[in-house]
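Inputs:
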Amino acid sequence: MGCEEIMKQKKLLKSHKSQEAFTGYLFLAPALVLLSIFLLYPIGTMFYYSLTDFYILSPDDRSFVGFENFIRIFSDAQFLNAFGNTVYFAVIIVPVQMSVALGLAILVNKNIKGRTFFRTAFFSPVVMSLVVVSILWTFLYNPSEGLFNEILGAVGIPEQPFLTSPDQAMNSIIVMSIWQGAGFQMLIFLAGLQNIPEHLYEAAEIDGASMWQKFLHVTLPGLKNVSLFIFITITIAAFKLLVQPMIMTQGGPLGSTQSLVYEIYETGFNYRDVGYASSMAVVFTLIVLIVAIIQRKVASEERGS
Amino acid sequence: MKKYFMLSSVLFLSGALAACNGGDEENLENAGEVAGNNANESNESNESNDDEVETGEVETDVEATGDESVELEIWIHQTNEDETAFYVDRIDAFNEAEDDIHVTTEVIIDDGASAYSDSVNASLVAGELPDVLAIDGPYTASFADADVIQSIDEYISDEDQDDFVDSIIQQGTYDGSLYTLGAMEGSAGLFYNKEIFEEEGIEAPTSIDDAWDWDEFLDVAKELTTEERYGLNLFFDDVGEFMTFTGAPFIWSNNGALIAEDGSTADGYLNGPESVEAFEFVSTLFDEEVVSQSPPETQFQEGEAAMALTGPWMGLMAEDADMDWGIIPYPEKERAVSPSGSMAYGMTADSENPDEAYELLAWMTNEESAEGLSEVTGMPPSRESVFDSMEKYDDEPWSVIREQVTETAQARPATPAYPVLTDAFSEIYSAAAQDVDMQEIADQEVERVERELERFAD
């Protein structure tokens, strides 16, 4: 009798547990289904297409070509150019945008008049659509009628070909991108700054630390985790550069602003070469993945020490 | 095991839900609700650029037996509202005229870049093409080569075909068969500001016989350039098809070509001596600073450029700006050539009702459509007979456009590699504004075209 009773209870418990699990999965289901349809499935097909010669106009007539697309990538001057441009963009924008954001955060963290106004002002470009901002800055950069050249002209500096010179176009895009993006990181830095306990500053003051020393030994270490988060997100966002060159320069002049993602887009949609575009996308994914892994490794080592 | 079971049951569930949705949609009788559903769907997939427009009356003809009625679908492009409204009106009229055919229209945004072709490409992969679709003329070959559209040779009468200007037939022909027809033609010339010309005492040629050669063109452009004004506007910030449309005639006029006649290679053509010489001439225009690399949009209308090399739409803009303007024929070198080509219609190979689809295509390109469209857009008509009936083309400045369309227009090359070829062309052409070796750039771009051509070599 006793034994049976226990068995019965165990069974009940078990069915209760599995029922709970079932409910759990049911809650998960919507997210899982969406993720599978819109993320996992496309990623899977990307890997598959990257091994084929899929041409949009003849979708049924695709054949398996092995690693041919990947071999072609590494001798493709256009791809390598786009890769170089994207790396340049990332290498410049990551440190500069971080510094600008940190600087702004420290400024608007000060107890000054109109602090809310400045916070809103610095953050407002983030709320604007990148497409709109790109179009506006194209006007600002215009050689003969743009605001920047008019200001330069007023102080006697000759007209600058901001977007029409291969030497300047990418830098012009970088400046605009920082203006547009830095406000967001400023907000995160600001939250980080406000998390640093006030007593650390007081202790530093008692020890006779200067402003600079306080920044170096209290503020920066206090922002370590926040900085890491910002570092990784800016880097990944930088690699995804697309809208600015698409709107402002169409990748020109002389391909100087062509980015990786733009190259993938053009290859897939304009040249209709989905197979090759997919293999570029695979390489792009791997690059971003490697960068992210290295950053994590470096960061976790630092945290350990 | 259990996990997998859970997952599959969840998937099954969601599948069942989707099926329910599908069923619901089919059961909905009310057109309004269907349209609402479609709107929701397009929002979800972020394709808010698609717009389903129901044309014609909502099935009021109860007497007609449903079986006899043929359902057709047509896709048109939208660049401006007046033009789209005209297309929709014409399709409505078709629906009224034809008792047993009912056409549904889908309007797809065309931003001048790739928005329209992106939509077409996506539907192509999904296998959801309409019966008739608008195609940018020079892309005819690539759609024909992939058997996406079918030849209309067996449908069109010789008499009807003869009425179309040669360049439209040339544009719609691939491999000896006719695939697409358009209601409008394109052309480009030098729009000029009459006031400035009078001030400077320059006489503008008004017919192809007195067209400027390159040297005269350059000299005049230099003469017209002052501190405050450029002699010429080439709209060089408009990278893309516009560049091939307006720029390629420089090469043709110098007896060059973008690609071999048989379409087998671009090597020795796009980078051949005649082509490079033409690119270098464009380069000279920038070296002499008679043209701006990023001109403000209304440079010509505001008198900040004395001439503008562009299409007929500039006529309407100049009219709006209340300026005194005229058209000078496209400058020539060895022979007179002018730009050509515009949107055209093709019927898809998978259409279940090709006879009716052709009827629709013919309707959209008949005299009435061509004349009406020309009035709305300012583009020249694609038919000789319509030129005869439109008085506007008898006199200056539009007589220049008529002369060009009927005598010197040359279609862009019919090759399935066109998407890459035109991109390569605009890369070289736009490089003319930079301080670079044109031959070197041309060689680089030809390499890309050659690789693309391999895809189509058999």
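Chain A has a mean pLDDT of 90. Flag for discussion at group meeting.
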